[in-house]
Amino acid sequence: MIKKLLTVSISLVLATSAGHVFAQGKTSAGKEKAATCAGCHGEDGNSMMPSFPKLAGQHQGYLVKQLKAFKANERISPMMAPLAIGLDEKSMEEIADYYSAQKISANPAPVLPAADDDDDAPAKTDEKKKAELDNLIEQGSDLYRNGNLSREVSACVACHGPYAEGNKPASYPSLHSQHADYLIKTLTDFKKGERSNVADNMMHMIATKMTNEDIKAVSYYISTLK
Fold it and tell me: Per the database record, which ranges form the Cytochrome c domain (predicted)?
């Protein structure tokens, strides 16, 4: 009996070790193939530019899905299409494996952009700016968790989770620690119908019911989640 248990234990250890080595190999191959992505998305998937998304820690299946959409021109991007078109499915999976294995960086404390106010208007005090930012993030938190019943805006938490960690089996993306500017652009694109590669245009239907203030508020809130 003891001999059988030892045999089973050794087999499990060997199987686990082999799987770990295989995963490391895919991650290493993905890192090499992702080198051309570093200029926009950062070497480890943590983009330093707010207009380009962070890819670190994103679900592998979601990344593959987006690369396929870029390649098939189902998700329009003059910048991404030429890069994706040269990738086969194995390369997409390896790149996605690499990025999904990286840790996303936390964002610095958010700062509201300078408003395009009248030059003659009195300058806002730091206290007033902070109060406006706190109020905006509070609005975003409420919208993320509860939605808006009066305007039939669904709560983001239903698909993206309580901490914006996403839903891996359903390929719903992780959103926490993402750049607010990128989130604002993405929701605006969904609202305008410029991005609609989601099944049944679910995000388009939600975003069309959101005001620009809603989009800004929820994007700033999500950017603070870790």
Answer: 25-103, 135-226
